[in-house]
């Protein structure tokens, strides 16, 4: 669906791909009427062409639009045409929890326990509100949880981050007589409750509580409770198998936190927390009960490095003074982009201060003509602190020294590092101008996780920034 980039749908100018799933894609767009960024969820054409799906899509969009809560992504509008079906949503400048978890796994890291408890408690707040209004999410998973940076925490005991739940009601669209792709299964297999795996018609909020408990299990241990790849796996394991106790995987996990997780993922709904509010309260009690020793034991006994999302996201914020902006506009790098491909002679592209668009389309500054490359695949930008490379939501990914970049997250690209897009290998050659002495960085954007100093739960707050679909 990257052919929509740069196009206009109604008053929305589509600027970038934020993510893509089985039902559709999410784009960042500009609402030209209100001059504000929005997120567009555009359904795949196979769904948009089904009249029954269109009707139910409208019903679910209307139900989701009634939800007004700080931890729920707001719905602004709905639009349909013979070829497009879309929801206009609040644009959250941040990342999905799913993208963050994947990066943690790649780097053998685990999130600070207090942060995991805080994020899950905020999601439980959102679910409690929705459940009181009769809305069950049905597809709680990390990819549907966004985390945004706050200047100040919402609550005295919370961290300066805000979790936001998206995609309320969309899983329900796959119920009933809607034509779906072969093998489509409502919900997401590793996170669905036992009753959802059995396709129970009477799901209530306790199903969401189970799914959220699975997310917490994953955050606390670095692993999912079950290895599930098929609907049959989902039924058998969610219904009948007991997952490893969290402390078997993470020995430093406090007993109180394990108890919260185990209760949330109980097989029988009546044995779980009966409301999301009760789950949120238990999570906050567990967080407030963490001692300095708990934090130290968790950090030292973990096989993975414990890292702080708050610290990481604060470091990724680029705060520039006006003098920096002027420096960026008046200085330009004296570098070349060297592009190599097996069996071909290397080619070079002279770099200036303007952004460089890379992709399959001939409209790109650098055309990379090969299978598996998106039309608008990645963007290279020069800043006072050096070059940044951003994956534009490509289908097959962009790799820097073989580490896959997160979509729409600028990463520093240093000389000596190799960028790979499909069969093409790229390096920077030459030198960039020295940074002006009058334009120091206020914060250094280093998108790499760093192990924080082990501190008690009462440490000073930091800040956060994230985005997803």
Write out key terms for the chains shown.
six-stranded antiparallel β-sheet, 23 strands, globular, Tumour Suppressor Smad4, alpha+beta, Transferase(Phosphotransferase), domain 1, single chain, 3 domains, Phosphorylase Kinase, domain 1
Label the structural class. Answer: alpha+beta
Strand content: 15-25%
Q: Return residue spans where pLDDT drops below 50 for at least 5 consecutive residues.
A: 175-185, 317-332, 433-469
Total beta strands: 23
Question: What is the name of the CATH class of the largest domain?
Answer: Mainly Alpha
Question: Average pLDDT across residues?
Answer: 80
The tally of structural domains comes to: 3
Shape: globular
Provide an overview of this structure.
With 469 residues, the chain is an alpha+beta fold. It folds into three domains: 2-90, Phosphorylase Kinase, domain 1 (2-Layer Sandwich); 94-308 and 455-467, Transferase(Phosphotransferase), domain 1, CATH 1.10.510; 322-431, Sandwich (Tumour Suppressor Smad4), CATH 2.60.200.20. It contains 13 helices and 23 strands. The chain has helices at 45-48, 51-65, 97-106, 113-132, 194-197, 205-221, 231-240, 246-249, 255-264, 276-288, 292-301, 309-315, 322-330; strands at residues 8-9, 12-20, 24-31, 36-43, 75-80, 85-90, 94-96, 109-111, 145-149, 161-165, 305-307, 334-341, 347-351, 356-359, 366-367, 378-383, 386-391, 399-400, 403-404, 411-413, 419-421, 424-431, 466-467. Strands 1-2-3-4-6-5 form a six-stranded antiparallel sheet. Strands 13-12-22-21-18-19 form a six-stranded antiparallel sheet, with no helix packed on it. A five-stranded mixed sheet has the order 15-14-16-17-20, with no helix packed on it. It is globular. Mean pLDDT is 80; it is low at 175-185, 317-332 and 433-469.
């Amino acid at each position: 669906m990257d052919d929509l980039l740069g196009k206009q749908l109604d008053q929305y100018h589509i600027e970038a791909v934020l993510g893509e799933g089985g039902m559709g894609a999410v784009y960042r767009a500009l609402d030209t009427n209100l001059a504000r960024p929005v997120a567009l969820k555009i359904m795949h054409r196979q769904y948009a062409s089904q009249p029954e799906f269109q009707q139910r899509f409208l019903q679910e969009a209307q139900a989701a639009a009634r939800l007004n809560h700080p931890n729920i992504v707001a719905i602004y509008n709905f639009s349909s045409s013979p070829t497009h079906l879309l929801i206009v949503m609040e644009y959250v400048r941040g990342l999905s929890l799913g993208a963050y978890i994947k990066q943690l796994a790649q780097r053998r890291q685990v999130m600070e326990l207090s942060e995991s408890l805080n994020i899950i408690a905020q999601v439980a707040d959102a679910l409690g509100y929705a459940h009181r209004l009769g809305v069950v999410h049905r597809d709680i998973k990390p990819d549907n949880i966004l985390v945004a940076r706050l200047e100040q925490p919402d609550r005295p005991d919370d961290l300066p981050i805000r979790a936001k739940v998206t995609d309320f009601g969309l899983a329900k669209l796959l119920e009933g007589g809607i034509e779906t792709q072969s093998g489509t299964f409502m919900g997401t297999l590793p996170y669905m409750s036992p009753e959802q795996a059995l396709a129970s018609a009477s799901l209530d909020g306790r199903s969401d509580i189970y799914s959220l408990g699975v997310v917490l299990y994953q955050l606390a241990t670095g692993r999912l409770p079950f290895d599930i790849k098929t609907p049959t796996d989902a039924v058998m394991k969610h219904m009948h198998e007991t997952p490893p106790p969290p402390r078997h995987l993470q020995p430093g996990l406090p007993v109180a936190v394990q108890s919260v997780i185990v209760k949330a993922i109980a097989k029988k709904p009546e044995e779980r927390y009966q409301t999301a509010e009760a789950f949120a309260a238990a999570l906050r009690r567990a967080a407030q009960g963490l001692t300095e020793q708990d934090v130290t034991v968790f950090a030292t006994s973990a096989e993975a490095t414990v890292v702080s999302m708050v610290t990481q996201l604060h470091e990724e914020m680029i705060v520039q003074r006006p003098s920096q902006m002027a420096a960026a506009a008046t200085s330009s790098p004296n570098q070349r982009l060297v592009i190599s491909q097996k069996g071909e002679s290397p080619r070079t592209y002279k770099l200036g201060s303007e952004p460089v668009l890379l992709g399959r389309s001939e409209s790109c500054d650098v055309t990379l003509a090969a299978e598996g490359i998106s039309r608008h695949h990645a963007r290279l930008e020069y800043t006072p602190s050096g070059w940044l490379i951003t994956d534009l939501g490509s289908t097959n990914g962009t790799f820097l020294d073989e580490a896959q970049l997160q979509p729409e997250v600028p990463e520093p690209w240093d000389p000596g590092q190799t960028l790979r897009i499909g069969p093409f290998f790229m390096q920077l050659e030459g030198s960039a101008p020295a940074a002006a002495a009058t334009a120091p960085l206020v914060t250094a954007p280093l998108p790499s996780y760093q192990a924080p100093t082990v501190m008690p739960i009462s440490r000073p707050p930091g800040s956060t920034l994230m985005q997803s679909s």
